[in-house]
Design brief:
alpha+beta; about 20% strand; three-stranded antiparallel beta sheet; phosphoprotein; kinase; membrane; transferase; binds adenosine-5'-diphosphate; transmembrane
Length: about 260
């Protein structure tokens, strides 16, 4: 009887192990399927700029000498599509890299001067009017490189989807650090707000200001979300179509320490 009981128990255990095993296989299959989807989306998205580059290069080859008027437009299209491909490749490399390989370098960062430096760099690169309202006197524990990258993604969106002044505001709210990037651009409809964080998701491309010059990748915000998670931060968007968008980075209270 004791043996029988033992056998039964081991059968239960076997069943349980079988179920766990199946669950693991399911998870693995799911993750492979996601990986395959990612690779297929990425290849598809990289094809678009390549096709444009190829067709403008062919046009120049055929008609460049007899039609010098085509030169400016073609070269600009080739240049901007090459820039888009570079951005996309960089973003894809980050997204494809397992998080454990993101070498983090944590340090105590004085927020106001750090944001000021980043904003200055961005302003110089893009010659955009950016106002900074930064509350002094508090620090967060973070990885400087990643936080800067995150801020640049939000600034870059404000730049691409608005024309006026961009405001960057840094303050402290209930013990958390808030970095806000505020634009008065085209805005995002409520039903699109959660979708814009999906990989490769872009809202109706025709709406984009100067789409020809400034094709995005649809990867910026999904990378922003992953960076924020890694830093223990949160990225949120508030927006009103036609009025503008506020993107906020919230760094949790536990990371704050008063000077
Ligand atoms: P993209 O490279 O296309 O900008 P993102 O992932 O950063 O990719 O953004 C996804 C989409 O969300 C954009 O294509 C755009 O339609 C919308 N979006 C993001 N930020 C803003 C903003 N500040 N104002 C208006 N629309 C925005």
């Amino acid at each position: 009887f004791v043996r029988l009981k033992q056998d039964m128990r081991s059968k239960d255990e076997l069943t349980e192990m079988g179920e766990t095993f199946n669950e693991m296989i399911g998870l693995l299959e799911n993750s492979f399927a996601k990986q395959e989807q990612f690779v297929s989306n990425a290849s598809h998205e990289l094809k678009t700029p390549l096709t444009i580059i190829e067709s403008y290069a062919s046009l120049l080859k055929r008609k460049g000498l007899s039609r010098p008027d085509l030169f400016g437009e073609s070269v600009e299209a080739i240049r901007s599509e090459a820039v888009r491909m570079r951005t996309m490749t960089e973003q894809l490399l980050w997204l494809a890299k397992p998080k454990r390989e993101w070498r983090l370098d944590w340090s105590e960062v004085n927020v106001a001067p750090f944001v000021e430096q980043s904003v200055n760099a961005f302003r110089t690169a893009y010659k955009r009017d950016i106002e900074l309202e930064a509350k002094e006197g508090f620090a967060v524990r973070t990885d400087k490189g990643l936080l800067k990258q995150l801020l640049f993604i939000l600034l870059d969106n404000a730049r691409k989807y608005s024309e006026g002044v961009i405001v960057v505001r840094v303050d402290e709210e209930s013990g958390a650090c808030m970095i806000r990037v505020i634009d008065e651009g085209i805005g995002i409809a409520p039903e699109e707000l959660s979708r814009v964080f999906e990989r490769f998701y872009r809202i109706d491309q025709a709406r984009t200001k100067g789409q020809e010059e400034e094709g995005g990748t649809g990867l910026g915000l999904s990378l922003a979300k992953e960076i924020a998670e890694t830093l223990g931060a949160e990225v949120t968007l508030e927006s009103e179509p036609g009025k503008g968008t506020t993107a906020a980075i919230k760094l949790p209270a536990r990371l704050l320490s008063k000077f």
